[in-house]
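Subject: design request, 550 residues
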């Protein structure tokens, strides 16, 4: 029997971000991308979300390498968290700019020694274990993006990476449709294609539209211009810098990740500017507003980003003032809407004018829309099709587009992260789920925050907590003092005196009835107070009894 190809998405299926796919043949693994996701609004206190990498770590002796399609954080941002779990360096293949961004990321984590980075270019081909990987140029919102044609003993797999069919990309070439069509004529077993814009009809606008919009804005702006975008969006940074230069503005770069990426891009020749041309943030005050352009992080409303700190009036060197023009040049990631809206509102309150999509053409998507998706399907003509990289609705809509261009419904594979798919020459089948879970990064902790902790955080954020201090005699468990209750986030103690007195009486009775065992006293107090406070307030504060034997 032919050994099937196994495809397992550990992230990116049914969500935006965390893109990570494992291709496995006869026990040998190839990983495509290793990205992170920004936390959703209900992930209280969480900094980042990464894939569950356990499946790969447990099989690291059979991991033959990692291929990164492009330099966005949702495709490479989780690499440090994977590498720090490995016992030996692993080879990584990436385009030149992507390799530079990986290097910056690994230096930040002091993990450069754990990666053997190999730079590849479109047209290159590399043998990686039982796989042969050909790198294909695709147009995206960042230079040097790649699609992949992966030769396997079962057949050819095409992984599009993230792409659009932009005929006039910024300082780049259009997606290599000719090579994709050639592969389609030779026969493709599986197409794995970006689904992010599967709900958008027509075609995605060209990056040149942003160039025209920036030109129009810079020509008319009288005050400072502040542009916020992703730190990895080197194309947009280049567009802004070149437009600023044409209009006599000097550029300052703010935000640690933005500064690191810009420095790398200058050194590697991706930005046509020298370090000396950049203005240091503390030197901005010596320039008139009409000669200033600031490029910064914060387009997603990230709480610690430069733009958000400006909007809160907490940035060390930049204070928003009337007359400032702020441009958000990024699509809001689903789940970040509230953070972005809060930032925009704060900027308007401070007197700034804010331009953001879709009200202004200051950003275009880097992803193919419906007509482009159908063209890709028609050119590649795969035996099997797996929509990837999108929320579940995007995967389903992409599957429907495939049916419109003649791919049988039973040949389309719609699965979510964590569901392995086995593929043979003539059939496919899903296997028992493995991995796919969210792993939360909170400060220095990775994976120590789970659903239980988040549930507690939600409860604390909604109803607060009550600490109950109970002092008892060590031997007998007899109550020695009247119980003390401390409220935080539940009620204001000074205005709820009668409620808290009644609660203290209830605690005293509960301790007496529970007897000498501290554990039983805690359980009795927690149970009775939860019922008591709900009956009186219709709220569920967290009850934290503290029995102190003396």
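Subject: RE: design request

Done. Sequence follows.
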């Amino acid at each position: 029997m032919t050994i099937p190809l196994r495809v397992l998405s550990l992230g990116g299926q049914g969500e935006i971000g965390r893109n990570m796919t494992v291709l496995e043949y006869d026990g040998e693994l190839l990983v495509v991308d290793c990205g992170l996701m920004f936390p959703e609004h209900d992930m209280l206190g969480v900094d980042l979300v990464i894939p569950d990498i356990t499946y790969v770590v447990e099989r690291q002796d059979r991991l033959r390498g990692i291929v990164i399609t492009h330099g966005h954080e949702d495709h490479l941002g989780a690499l440090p968290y994977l590498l720090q779990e490995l016992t030996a360096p692993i080879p990584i293949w990436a385009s030149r700019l992507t390799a530079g961004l990986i290097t910056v990321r690994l230096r930040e984590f002091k993990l450069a020694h754990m990666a053997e980075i190999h730079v590849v270019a479109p047209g290159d081909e590399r043998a990686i274990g039982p796989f042969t990987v050909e790198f294909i140029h695709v147009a995206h919102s960042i230079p040097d993006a790649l699609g992949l044609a992966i030769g396997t003993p079962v057949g050819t797999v095409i992984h599009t990476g993230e792409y659009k069919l932009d005929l006039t990309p910024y300082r780049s070439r259009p997606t290599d449709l000719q090579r994709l069509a050639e592969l389609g004529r030779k026969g493709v077993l599986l197409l794995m294609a970006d689904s992010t814009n599967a709900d958008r009809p027509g075609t995605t606008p060209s990056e040149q539209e942003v160039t025209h919009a920036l030109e129009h804005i810079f020509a008319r702006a009288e005050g400072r211009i502040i542009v916020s975008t992703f730190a990895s969006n080197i194309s947009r940074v280049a567009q802004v810098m070149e437009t600023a230069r044409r209009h006599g503005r000097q550029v300052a770069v703010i935000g640690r990740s933005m500064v690191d990426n810009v420095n790398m891009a200058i050194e590697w020749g991706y930005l046509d500017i020298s370090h000396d041309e950049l203005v240091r943030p503390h030197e901005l005050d010596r320039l008139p507003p009409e000669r200033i352009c600031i490029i910064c992080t914060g387009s997603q409303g990230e709480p610690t980003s430069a733009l958000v700190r400006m909007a809160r009036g907490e940035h060390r060197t930049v204070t928003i003032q009337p007359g400032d023009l702020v441009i958000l040049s990024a699509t809001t990631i689903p789940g970040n809407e509230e953070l972005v809206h809060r930032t925009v509102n704060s900027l308007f309150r401070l007197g700034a004018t804010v331009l953001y999509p879709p009200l202004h053409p200051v950003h275009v998507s880097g992803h193919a829309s419906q007509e482009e998706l159908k063209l890709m399907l028609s050119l590649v003509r795969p035996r099997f099709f797996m929509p990837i990289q999108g929320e579940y609705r995007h995967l389903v809509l992409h599957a429907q587009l495939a049916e419109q261009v003649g791919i049988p419904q039973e040949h389309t594979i719609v699965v979510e992260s964590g569901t392995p798919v086995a593929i043979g020459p003539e059939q496919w089948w899903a296997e028992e789920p493995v991995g796919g879970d969210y792993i939360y990064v909170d400060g220095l902790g990775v994976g120590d925050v789970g659903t239980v902790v988040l549930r507690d955080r939600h409860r604390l954020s909604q109803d607060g907590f009550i600490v109950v201090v109970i002092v008892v005699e060590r031997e007998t468990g007899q109550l020695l003092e009247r119980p003390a209750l401390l409220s935080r986030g539940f009620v204001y103690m000074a205005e709820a005196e009668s409620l808290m007195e009644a609660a203290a009486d209830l605690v005293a009775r509960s301790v007496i009835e529970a007897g000498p065992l501290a554990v039983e006293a805690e359980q009795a107090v927690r149970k009775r107070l939860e019922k008591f406070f709900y009956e009186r307030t219709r709220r569920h504060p967290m009850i934290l009894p503290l029995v102190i034997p003396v």
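Residues 177 and 221 are 40 Å apart (CA to CA).
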